[in-house]
Amino acid sequence: MPTKKHKLIRITTVAKSLRRLLTGQLHYMNTHGFEVTGVSSPGELLNEVQDYEKVPTHAIHMQRGIAPLQDLVSLWKLYVYLKQEQPQIVHTHTPKAGTLGMIAAYWARVPVRLHTVAGLPLMEAKGFKRKLLDAVERLTYRYATCVYPNSVNLKEFIIKEKLCPASKLKVIGHGSSNGIDTSQFDPHQIPTETVVSIKQNLGIQDADFVFVFVGRLVKDKGVNELLSAFVDLAEELTHIHLVVVGNNDDNSDPLTEQSQNRLELHPKIHAVGYKTNVVDYFALADVFVFPSYREGFPNVVLQAAAMQLCSIVTDINGSNEIITDGENGFVIPVKNTERLVEKMQWCYTNKSEVKAMGTQSRKLIQERFERTHLWALIKKEYDSYL
Asked: Which of 101, 133, 206, 249 has the fewest CB atoms in 10 Å of its CB?
């Protein structure tokens, strides 16, 4: 007689997080002893989750920003749904889903309530907004059975700020929410013709040196500093290009007008927008640059490292746990354009060392962050509660 599966409900605020942040994980759990349902705000991407992960989904609208009345409606709907489904485990990701999901699960008497922290917006907040965000985080953690910061430094920050008792916190493996599929992010899997075609379309010559940035085009990701550093460097070095992959989907954190103009007008800066084939753009690059102000455990740094790229990152949670300064890339201070110029220039001047650093990066990712290994560790966590 087959063993009855335990019900597991995974909740994110928007479906994009279920689809992109947790790619493959829901299907894995569904085929390894759990009856999985994905819950998020409605939309086409939620249908994609159902098709790709081969699990049922349930739509409950959740507002990403501050919206007290809408939040109460969402909280009630989550409570009713969880009370009806009676899962053994509820596991939430992203801030709003975490707060609403943990409270609703507690009220619905779900025995195991887990929340993963992948970055804290409050790190850059000040004044009343900071106090409000602090209070919301404490509320989320209070109702959780266990809280999983996705990096060691993030765990230490949460303890330092007294947001949650240390006894309730645990980092799974070496960190990350979903690990990395190194068979997909593999430079040897990208046809040479693909790289040549993209370079030709952008006007990049074979002998040119290419920096790449992947992420949202907002101030918080250090894009203003990156563009300023590149423009300064391009005045001296004529054979460099910067490829910028991503969209600006956050009007609350816009780039400066000068940065917008540089993205649109500078002949060596190529803003290509959001791309689903981001692996192809890693493949054409020599160095990955990611001067973000704050992260949890950035997937994009994992991806670049798996693609055998030397990376220049800022000294923030997650990034400084993937990149070791001088070994597989460089770690520089946040918001420091001068140091960014210095390291970008070093990479251009020391191309053979840059390649060696990239080789070391991929090796490290394969050893510590392979996706299926992390999934097995998460399943082990679930099993320990059951």
From this structure: 206
